[in-house]
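Try it yourself: sequence plus guanine, in.
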Amino acid sequence: MPASIIDGKQLAEDLRKDIAARVQALAKRGVTPGLAVILVGDDPASVSYVTAKEKACAEAGMRSFERRLPGDASEATVLDLVKAFNDDPAVHGILVQLPLPKQVSERRVIEAIRPDKDVDGFTPENVGRMLLGERCFLPCTPHGVLKLIERAGMSTKGAHAVVVGRSNIVGKPLANLLIRKEYNATVTVCHTGTKDMAAHTRRADILIACAGTPGLITADMVKPGACVIDVGVNRVDDPSKPKGWRLAGDVDFRAVSEVAGSITPVPGGVGPMTITMLLYNTVESAERAAGA
Ligand code: GUN
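Structure, out:
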């Protein structure tokens, strides 16, 4: 039987209704949640992410403050912008779109963000708090992945979760969250140094692909009935498409759907959830600032 499709778009819409209600409650107190977005350069994937984030903000009744800098902007320029947003009371969340051009240190820029406005959950303080299980902003993509697994009706408790990828943004935090008592999964992390990856992935009740390699996960690597979450968003050449490319995940969707129990599509799976969790963190930050 083919896998059921986990509809990230629908789940995102459901959660955004709750977020919109919280925005309305804040409006009665004269507060509008504000998200500042800094984009350096014109990488097409980053431009489309940032555009989608700003559109979602507007739809949720939030303000967005957008600054687009040229690709040759200096680190000092980016740091000055971050500092200005840190000090601006109308800004409750600051997002610096990654990756940054090579003349700008990602580490120094992220460390400059006030932790209480770090709605991406990327600052060392928030990463440390997450690791310790203390109150913090959870990073948006891992948080969205956990919601998708829940929506699929898959319990993480006692499950073997295999995470393929070890990025700071997705793989590492996700593995860490899954071993929390509340999720109670047993976690294996695969990466480029892993020998015989398929031997690990075939043992996964929950398989999360976040390596950034199109089509990495093939049907023979998946346990029948597994819940498969595809975090990959890769542009692959496709002359049959008007733009000459299409989006592809890290999972060979068509073949894996014949084996898995449930699976997220690309697009329409993880992507809308990442943006939703960003809105969630921003409204949370505004509530904290308003003492709500
Ligand atoms: N680049 C790719 N994903 C993300 C994300 O979730 N946040 C930021 N700031 N940059 C990204």
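One thing you can check immediately is this: The chain has two domains: 32-114, 140-271.
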